[in-house]
Structures are given as structure tokens and as C-alpha cells.
Amino acid sequence: MSSFDGLFSLVQSLLGQPAAHWLREHVDVPEGLLDFSWSEQALHRVWLAEALNLCLLHKLVDAVPDGRRYVEEQARHGRKVVFDHGALRTVDWPDNGELPRGRQAFARLLEPLGFTDVRTYPLTRLNMTGWGYRQMDLPEDIAQFFVSELHPGRFSESFQQAVSRVVSSSLDPLEAQHLNILKRLQLTRHCSLDEAQTVLPALYRAFGRQHGVVLETDYQCLLKESAEMAWIATEGNSFNHLTDRVQDLTACVAHQHDLQRPMKDSIEVSASGRVLQTAYRACTVSRGLIDAAGHYREHAVPGSFVEFIQRKVDPDTGRIDLNFDSSNAQGIFKMTDSKA
Fold first, then answer.
1. Please, which of 31, 123, 127, 268 could form a disulfide with 331 given CB 3.0 to 4.6 Å?
2. CA dihedral over 119, 120, 122, 123, signed as positive or negative
3. Contacts of 260 (CB under 8 A, 6+ apart)
4. pTM surpassing 0.90?
5. Topology classification of domain 3-336
């Protein structure tokens, strides 16, 4: 079995054969992975990082029909999408149920996989902070994570009380056996194939909603002050978006407009001029909320979306610019604002 066969076998152990085959046909997998060990006894962390990223990409395209259609259109034109980064939101709040506070719930699993928070991004307009987590073995090839924290302490007291009611019921998807595997992985950079198959489902579950059903009154309270916290209330720590790295964003956008796809109105350009981003508007999903009479009712709310990014070469390094940009990020975040 080749290393790439092994990678997709690991993905298949979680998602099943049809999904693993779909990913193999539609998503670019970096050749640089072949420089790292793959064996049943000693699996390098890059393989587990890539397997997780592939599984999370599939989870998002399952949730975002426009995203699946886009990826499959690219394949019909002979191109596999290049997974640049995924984004998720957390809450910087002490009353977070069983979960560690804010981004620490994800630092504990990303760091053993070789990801390091290389830069902090103030998201001042949103009362949030973002961190770029980059995989240090293959930084240009393995998709990054943009992890943001919302700071409820900067909002009203009623907002903070609603946040507590929402997130205090959170359960921890990582059990002791998973944390032990991650600890060994962090120390040695390797785990066995059996350990990878054991921990991957728990890592996958971490990117979801860990708290219970939300009261409609709490949802509306949160929405008045923060569309981002309202989104977290229904979607939790799911991927907010995933991003395809394209060579020519202007041409990509023009083509998507020709197809009458639900695109953002403009392209966000970083202060350096080297990072250009835009996105589809968020899909609409149906989520249950509990009304004042205690009845569970479905509501149409913003879900996740697909983003597009072009990274130009940094002349100082001769490499593509892997950074993010605070202004860009805040513009992209508006895709899930139901009031926008």
C-alpha cells in the first residue's frame, strides 16, 4: 500500500469509501507528505493533520451545497481544489462547560499535529481576536487554521448572561485516551496507525457544536449585539468556512459572477497587497430553537460558506505570503451576518 493509499484508507475509516474516493478525486494532496514516514507503527503527524483536514473539508461541502457544486465544477475543468485554510470560532469565556476556554480547546489538538499560532490578528470591530495556526512541517501545503475568539466581556451584561446559558452545557469530545495519544504525538511527532484511527473521530467531532439547544430569546439577544456569537449559538465550533487557493482571484470571481453564484460584492485586499480574498455568501440552514412556550421550532439561520484566496509571493522571502489580514478577515466574517 502506498502512503497516499494509506492516507485515504485512514480517511475512509472515518467517512466511508464513497467520501474518501470523492476527496481523492477532487482535492489536491501535497506531494511533500511523501517525505515523512508512514508505517503502522510510526505514522508521522503530517499524515494525521492532512487526514483531519480532508475530513473537515468533506464535512463542510456536505453542509454547503454551493461548495460541493463549486468543487465538482473545478474537477470537471481538470483542476483539484487547493485547501488553503479553514476557520472556526470559539468563545473566550470561563463558563464553557467541559471545554477549555476559547481557542485553548483547539490549541490542545492542533499543536500535537504540528500547528503553531504564528501570528495574532485583532478583530476589533467584532470584539474578537484571531490566530493563524500554521503546520510547521509543510507550512505552504497543509491547510492552516484561522481560530478566532469572541470576547463576551466586551458586551452588555445581558449578552454575557445569554452566552453563559448557551455554552455552559458544552461537552468535551476528547476523552482521556484521546488526550493521551495527543500527548505522545506532541512528544514524539509520531503515533501508530491504530492510535490515529482512534483519535481521528474525536478530532473530527471537536469541529462541531458541543452545547445543547438554544433558547430563541437568547439567540435574539446575542444577535442584537454580535452576529458572530449568534452564529456560534447555532453552529458551535464547526468550520465557519473553508478556502480554495486560486492562481487568479479576479478571473475566478468573474467566472462565478457569470454563473450567477451568491458572491460577496467585493474582493478584500490585505495591507501588504499580497493576500486577496472573497467568498460565497453563507448558505442558509435550519436549526431548532426553543420558544417562550418551551416548544422546539426550526428557524432559518446562516450556516457556513466557501472562500477564495490568492496568495502572492513575498519579495523578501521569495515564498507565497501565508499570513492573514485583520481587515480582510472582518470583511469575510460578514458572510454569516444575517443582518448584512
1. 268
2. positive
3. none
4. yes
5. 2,3-Dihydroxybiphenyl 1,2-Dioxygenase; domain 1 (3.10.180)
